[in-house]
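User: Structure tokens for both sequences below?

Assistant:
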Amino acid sequence: MGDDYMGDETKNVSLTEGSTNDEMAVECEDAKDGLQGDVLPDNRLTEDTEDTEDTEDKIGKSIASFIPQDEEGRKKLVRNLIVAGVILVAAVLILAVGLPGVTYLQASDAFDSGDYSRAIALYGKAGNFADAAERKETAQKALYYEQGKEKMKKGDYESAISLFEKAIPYKDAKKCKEKAQDADYYMKAVALFDEGDYASAGKSFAALGDYKDSLDRAKTCAEKLMEQQEYAAAQYIYTALGPQFEEQRANADDLAQKKATFESALQCIEDNKVDSALDYLGKLPDDFGCDGKTVGALKGQLNAAKPIMDLAGTYKSCDPSKCRVTQTSKSTGYYYWWESTDTITGEDLSIDASLNSDGSVHLSGSVSFYRYTNFSTIGEYVNGSSVSKSFSLDGTGIPGSIPIDDQTSLVRNGDGTWSLSWSESDNSHDLYFDYLYTANFRYSK
């Protein structure tokens, strides 16, 4: 058996070794033909590939048939696809969160884009979804905030303050409100300064501190007030400006106190209290002055005017007085007279005195007295009544007399009393006689 095996193997080897090239070529060709006949998968792969290519080609042609060939058509197709996509997304959102949720998302998108009015409306429509109510409030404050900024740009600071107040605590609304308040306060202070109200303007500028040029403006206001002798107002501003103006403050305070004393003296003069006025003036240096008046000059005027000013007061009739009628004959000159039978009392004299700017004294007042008012040759039938007459005059010395009218005058007596003389003539009432009616009264304090 082993020999047979070896012999067959040797025979095959020999055959192979003894074969020619042509014979090997035939064997290779036969092998090839046999192999080709057995490889069916390769043929099917080729056929499947061809079928796939045909199918893809058909699908591509089908898709291409839906695509417009013109540019406008393709744009329209794109828009339609976008709309379809949006609808699809909206549908998905509605399924996911419901209609209020979609509105909430739209509101949030509007808020993020700065469209706060639309966000407010949409959050309102979202109802109780999530934190829609809180978000709506935030959107409202954001709207107030933006409106406030616009008002600031236009210089409408009062409106800006109101809007920023409503916007708090959104972003830096509180700080913006403070800025608007400062700007508004500053502009109003400038207006007061331009109007010449330096006291009000200075207080406002001082309160603003280092805002813009407020400190410099406050200092200017104080200086102008000092020039106008408004020392108290200037002192207030210097105090507000701080320790660096302590010297100016102290000076303004000293002058303010002196002015107050001076004004007290003037009030006493107006009230006819000369002695009190001189007491106040004695506390001040002679060179101090206000409103064009100096202490020294005013003291000189008061000392000179004091005797006249002392005339002021109320005087009462001090002696029993009667009215008299004197009857005189026109032909012979013979006369006789009679008096009222009743004693007349209760009459008075009132004198006011005030110092004029030139140092003279203005005296004014009124005097009441009894006089006859009808004519009769019989004394018992003569009637009368009280009358009041006023007077005024200016002078630099005590007057010896004060004329009141053509029938009436006051005379100053050496004892400080006043005598009134009244007389009235009737020369046409009777053909034969003239009548003279007189009255005399004396008044003392």
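Moving on to the next sequence.
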Amino acid sequence: MAKTTMRLTEDWAVVLLGFMIIGLAVWGLAIPVPVYKWADGVQLAALFSAANSLDVMYQFLFAYAIVIVGAVLTGRPLRPQLLGFPFVFILTIGALLLAGNAFLNDLGLEAVIFSLAIGLLVGNVFRQPQWFRESLNAELLVKIGLVLLGTGVIFSDILKAGSLGLLQSLIVVLSVWYFAFWLCRKLKVDDELTMMISSAVSICGVSAAIATSGAIKGDSRKLSYVVSMVLITAIPMMIAMPYLAKAFGFSEEMTGAWLGGSIDTTGAVVASGSLVGDRALEISTIVKFSQNVLLGIAALAISVYWTYRGTPDGEGVEKPGLGVIWERFPKFVLGFLAASLLFSFVLDAESVGRVKGGIKNIQGLWFALAFTSIGLETNVKDLLGNNNIKPFWAFLIAQLFNILVTLAVAWWLFG
């Protein structure tokens, strides 16, 4: 009889890993909090003291253990994780040291930007062995950080912003999806790319493109092209939009709603919200979660449309069922909500005060590690390679429409 192994999907694994970190903290494990802030050479040298270096080492061992457990839970090969993660961690520490500089910190440059820049530089200058590329898993890292983010968000704020966020998401997703679909048809983009682009630009970027490709059994090369376009636009939007919001004097709530509703990837939303402030980060994450919730419904609707549209391409596609909604639903959202419920209603104030500093620090580390990995995974030459220009123009125009519509709705609901 063949031996079977139990494996968790990545979405369920990050919920388990996130609550493993929370549980260890609540039960008394003191998560170390290294110091990275410095203003001159003397302060920089002090960061390399024995005590601070030991805190960094403890934090590395803690994160290393979580990553290894994650590989076991999801069935990923262990050897690449064992060899590759220490290198990602070292690069991330470099990013944290840069972000800790007082001058750069005053400019509003967060660790995630330096993580991304260092990852892009190393990933595009040096050739990476296959085993190292297999060790990179940015989605796992950023989703663990998002589960931990729930510990700092009061549940009443989720209900308040979540209802407004869901209303914003419904308006934006429907209007932007239809506009992108109409535009792609006008530019004679093929049907598969049309569906993927419309979903990616209107719902939640890479996840929506992947879900749509699965729903229509799309070409993986076309999916890769759409993901590349999402990355090309998300990075400049992530950096520029917070500064535009500050220049125009938008409130943190309105800015967060604008970022969460228009930037396509969850990780980029987190990074962009971090540049504005804690409240903007909370609202942007909640609004993005509201869009993520719509992903399962959108996948079902797209499956129904693709199956029954009456064209030869629809032949042989499995008839969709209600299970598609649950299958496509991002399970880490449940982890975020459960963490917020735990810290809002279950734990006493003393316990929350004791552990929230360490959890917030490790949450920031996960986000920084994720963006180092994203940079290492992103090949600029591949992103800018030769592809049909019409889908790219369709994506850019639809993204601009998305930015303007979301700004108007965010101003109406949160301004």
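User: Anything stand out in the second?

Assistant: Residues 155-186 form the longest helix (32 residues).
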